[in-house]
Amino acid sequence: MQHVIQLGATALQIGAVYILFSLGLTLIFGVMRIVNFVHGHIFAIAALVVASLLPRLVEGGFAAPTAYVLASLAGIGAALGLGALIYFFGFRHFQRDLVGSFILSIGFVLMLDGVLLSLFGGSVRGVPEIFPGTLSVAGAQITMQRLFLCAVAFLMAAILYWALAHTKLGKALRAVAYDHEAAMMVGVPYGRIAFLGFLIASFLAALAGALLAPVTIVSPVIGTDYLIKGFIAVIIGGLGSVPGAILGSFFVACIETVGGYYLDSSYASIAIFTLVIVVLLFWPKGVLGRG
């Protein structure tokens, strides 16, 4: 029983990051109908800024939690700035163009690989523990740092879900995702809504990077693995579906956790890709997809 609880807690921790990451991907696809491979670099730059800035702030006399908040704000700000630049100088001209956005994404990825490597170097970075201590649940141990990660991630997912259903911006985003031409005919400013949707998605990726930095090793290529898992999650759940992104993230996290514990991480990866094949064969739109 203890192993089951421990595996479940680990799956929740991994799934929390995947949820934030995949929600950004599905939001961009739903609103703009583009494939954004740069999402991983937005995630990575937030994690890199936190990993680079936090130790310096601690050495400068700031308490670890305060330094972490300041470093996270700087990382999220840098990621949002990158997202705005990418949108205005790239994706704004390729909205609802899958082929063009795909090619543009690859170009941005190659460019940003070099930029991040030049700015932060190729070495990995570790972040000191921010919230020490562990919580014991029926014998299973959960670190306070990972518990904080889960709490913030699930809170942000709940806020986004509520905002999409009850706020004016959320309704505009859903209207554009469902039928952008009809939304424009009734006065929805598509260009502004697309930009705001892109920034919200960038914020979710940046927040995931800032949350993950203290619990993993950070490097300029950290976003690649999460990009692959994020796309797998939205494909399983259904492109453009917020509940589907959440469900797909849990599927991926559970398979990765259980497979990695009982077998090997390579077998877990094989199982994840096998699941994608099965879903595409029997549910081409995804489990909760509509198009």
In short:
Helix content is 75%, strand content 3%. The protein has 291 residues and is an all-alpha fold.
Mind explaining what this structure looks like?
By secondary structure, the chain is mainly α. The protein has helices at residues 2-32, 39-59, 64-89, 98-120, 144-166, 168-178, 180-185, 190-212, 222-237, 242-262, 265-282, and strands at residues 134-137, 140-143. The protein has a domain at 20-219. The protein is built from eleven helices and two strands, in the order ααααββααααααα. Strands 1-2 form a two-stranded antiparallel sheet. The longest helix has 31 residues, at 2-32.
**Computed CA radius of gyration, to the nearest angstrom:** 19 Å
Largest sheet: 2 strands, antiparallel
Order of helices and strands: HHHHEEHHHHHHH
> Strand order of the main beta sheet, please?
1-2
Supply the number of helical segments. Answer: 11
Mass-distribution shape: globular
Averaging pLDDT over every residue, what do you get?
A: 85
Point out poorly predicted stretches.
none
User: How many strand elements?
Assistant: 2
Task: Give the CA-CA distance, first to last residue.
Answer: 41 Å
Structural class estimated from helices and strands: mainly alpha
Provide the fold topology.
Layout: H1 2-32, H2 39-59, H3 64-89, H4 98-120, E1 134-137, E2 140-143, H5 144-166, H6 168-178, H7 180-185, H8 190-212, H9 222-237, H10 242-262, H11 265-282
Antiparallel strand pairs: 1-2
Helix pairs in contact: 1-5, 1-6, 1-8, 1-9, 1-10, 2-3, 2-4, 2-8, 2-9, 3-8, 5-6, 5-8, 6-8, 9-10, 10-11
Features of the shown structure:
globular, 291 residues, mainly alpha, 11 helices, 2 strands, single chain
